[in-house]
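# step 3/5: fold
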Amino acid sequence: MSADYRPQALCLGEGDLSLATDLYQLTMAAVYHGRRPPAGATFELFVRRLPARRNFLVFAGLEQALASLRALRFSGEQLDYLRRLPQFGGVEPSFFDELAGFRFRGEVWAMREGSVFFPGEPVLRVTGSLLEAQLVETVLLSIVNFQTAIASKAARIRLAAGDAQLAEFGGRRAHGPQAATWVARAAWLAGFDSTSNVLAGQRLGVPVVGTMAHSFVMSYGGEREAFARFAERFPEHSILLVDTYDSLDGVRKAIELGPRLKGVRLDSGDLAALAFEARRLLDAAGLTETRVFASGDLDENRITELRAAGAPIDAFGVGTRLATSSDTPYVGGIYKLVEVEENGRAVPRFKDSPGKTTYPGKKQVERRLSGGRMTADRVLAHGAAGGDGEPLLEQVMRDGEPVAARGLSEARRHCRRELTRLPEELATLAPPPRAYPVQIDRSLERLLERERSRVAAQSPSQGSG
């Protein structure tokens, strides 16, 4: 082993956030430094289109996003590292002095965490100096995109499962320990009832559940002894894994425990057929309150099939396909500049490449309801006279400090309410007959055309002369 080898467990902490970014955020910041950039800037975070097999998205990660903005600092060690990078060899020392004193002192507006949203709608808006509003792009996108992807998947599973209990089991398939904890958080926000992730229980207050592994059963001489030992230690929590050898034979052995048996877990095979037979055996033994728990590569589609077959399953454990959002493993959230402040006035900014046009200026989103269901959203200029819709963006950070903080439990309640407000055609796994209507206010259309004309007038002649 090399004498200078230092084993490191790369676990991200608050002190690492400043460098948990893309290099170009810092090189752009170095250009802004001392070059009289605009006094202020506003960026908005949104998606251009829904991912495949999604009728809606659930906004998640706001609490972590705000905490990250508040905690973002550059340590002396981090600044020494940046000074040594060849890209910063010609950068004046005062730039690193500016980073040493960096604090996010801007403001943030956002939808409430747990809100349902659609393409073209800003879910989060950041205003601050150009340097600070630009510098936080990567960390905000990484937090919001990931948790939104998981929460949106979890919401589909919640809708598919009806009243059945849902447990998140994805820690061992998640993309690292931090991702695993965020999976548990996003799943609980979107309606799951519990998680197997103990850290999420301790840090976030998510209820924790667990059964046993096949290795536990295999470590004893047989299932009968393994089940007896487990029930002796956990008489009130004895949910037993019965498929190590033969599932129904395992159910029969578990039944020998009598009323101490709280549940049996089926993890392989024809889950519907096994659930019917397990329920029959349990009821015949008088264990009508003992629950049937199913797991094993489940997702919203498989759960829908099991429920359509009438399988008597009381609870589902969902792991791999949730923790990786396997059918749609990412959300393409983007963070775009929409306004700068120059000489005390707001100047709109926009992007206009093919298929990627953005609307300039700060925005608000209004939602109309009818009969308790969402009917249409409207995107309009921030501060413009609203109609009869409910405004969705609210201020959540001022001068770098959170305001109107609600927390995870409130986000969970809000998401539950949002899912009941979905139009019926969106609350299914099937593609809807039409996209949910998101209307762009005519004033934004006019502003975009005006800014296009302004930019075109400043372009050099395209003639041959």
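# step 4/5: annotate
The mean pLDDT is 94.
# step 5/5: archive (pending)
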